[in-house]
Amino acid sequence: MRKVITLLVTSFLLIILTPVDASAAETEEEIEKDNKLSMHQLSNHKSNVEELEMIYIDEETVDMTNNERDLLERLVHAEAKGEPYEGKVAVAVVVLNRVDSNQFPDTVSEVIHQDKQFTPVSNGKINKPAGDSSKEAVEEALHTDRSLVTESLYFYNPKTATSRWLDDKVTTEVIGKHVFKD
């Protein structure tokens, strides 16, 4: 659903805002005539789109305040306990990157519960409550630009991993004992 809404908002922006950014050679009258809207109406459309984007962001934040947020906090706690705070944020970002990716399911819950993806799900450690630093890390991951591990869809500890298939993927970052891969 999130991907569909993003696509719709992006398409709407391209359709409505492209004429507003027309070359300086065009006059306001030409822009109005081409779009069959006055500059005032075009300006109102831009405001409506910005409002829609804010509502969309707020809805995404609200979705994360319940069970999925708690699940993500518990996953971060189980996966990154003993890791630096930056590593906890990066683990949360990997889950969010997967939600945004076409290669993975569309919700935090589906990503976390996807078969054989996160050890704490299979060994039950995800059921332990999250600590404060894991909760803060999830909060930061949800409200920052995710630039720390922007492209990363995977992470692992090479010293404890039993499967080595990630070794061939490009390393994007190393934080603490975790290696992040795209």
UniProtKB/TrEMBL annotation:
Cleavable signal peptide: 1-24
Alphabetical list of Pfam families matching this protein: Hydrolase_2
All residue ranges annotated as the Cell wall hydrolase SleB domain in the record: 82-180
Keywords associated with the record: Signal
Presence of the UniProt keyword Cell division in the record: no
Keyword Ribosomal protein listed: no
Protein known as: Cell wall hydrolase SleB domain-containing protein
Organism: Oceanobacillus kimchii
Organism phylogeny: Bacteria, Bacillati, Bacillota, Bacilli, Bacillales
